[in-house]
TrEMBL record:
Coiled coil: none
Residue ranges: DNA binding: 38-57
Lineage start: Bacteria, Bacillati, Actinomycetota, Actinomycetes, Streptosporangiales
Keyword set, alphabetical order: DNA-binding, Repressor, Transcription, Transcription regulation
Domain HTH tetR-type as annotated: residue spans: 15-75
Protein name: AcrR family transcriptional regulator
GO molecular function: DNA-binding transcription factor activity; transcription cis-regulatory region binding
Pfam families the record matches: TetR_C_6, TetR_N
Superkingdom, natural source: Bacteria
Length: 212
């Protein structure tokens, strides 16, 4: 086998192992909180030695950032799938609702994402190194995307023209994040949070029987 193929195989194996370890961190964090996801706890959850975890990730910060990027990529994929299910030319307001709804903790994967992201953001408040990681730029990208959809909705007459798209997007994304936290805390159900989003956008509330 050529050396390039051997190197590629080793690279693939390394990536698979790193993703397995990252998945173990997310399981620990989802069950006990990010503070409980020590290198030793992650190793135990993954069924590997602490030495092996440290072989792939020298520090917990490296492991945490890799896991967060992996989780963010997965959530981005789910958003793309949701948008694809809307059809060829969905209404901009429908696109906005879909994106904001996906940010809610409506299932285990999105619950873990919201929990881990919020925990990480709280750590970043007092840690400048964490605060400057690219992962925390995700809300900015979402705001820009939503702002463009607001602008398109204004052009189609589906949203009022007298509001600033960027400010409206900032308010909507912040609202969605706050609603997600309130769902995690048990303040309201995911269905109630969805009702808030839909009514804020001027759409109908979910059907009481189906939640859709």
């Amino acid at each position: 086998m050529p050396n390039s193929e051997v190197s590629m195989g080793r690279s693939d194996d390394r990536d698979i192992r790193r993703r397995q370890i990252a998945a173990a961190l997310l399981r620990v964090a989802g069950a006990k909180g990010l503070h409980a996801a020590t290198m030793r706890a992650v190793a135990a959850e993954a069924g590997v030695s602490l030495h092996l975890v440290q072989h792939y990730f020298e520090t917990k910060e490296q492991l945490m950032l890799f896991a967060l990027r992996h989780l963010a990529e997965r959530m981005a994929t789910r958003i793309k799938e949701d948008l694809g299910a809307l059809g060829a030319a969905p209404a901009p307001r429908q696109v906005i609702e879909t994106v904001l709804t996906r940010a809610l903790p409506t299932d285990e994967e999105s619950r873990v994402f919201h929990l881990v992201y919020t925990s990480y953001a709280m750590l970043a408040v007092t840690d400048a190194a964490l605060r400057h990681q690219p992962f925390l730029a995700a809300p900015d990208a979402m705001e820009r995307f939503v702002a463009e959809q607001v602008r398109l909705a204004q052009e189609s007459g589906d949203m009022p023209r007298g509001v600033d798209p960027a400010l409206t997007a900032a308010a909507l994304v912040a609202m969605s994040a706050g609603l997600g936290t309130s769902v995690l805390l048990g303040q309201r159900s995911a269905e109630d949070a969805l009702t808030v989003i839909r009514q804020t956008l001027g759409g109908p509330a979910p059907d009481a029987a189906t939640g859709a």
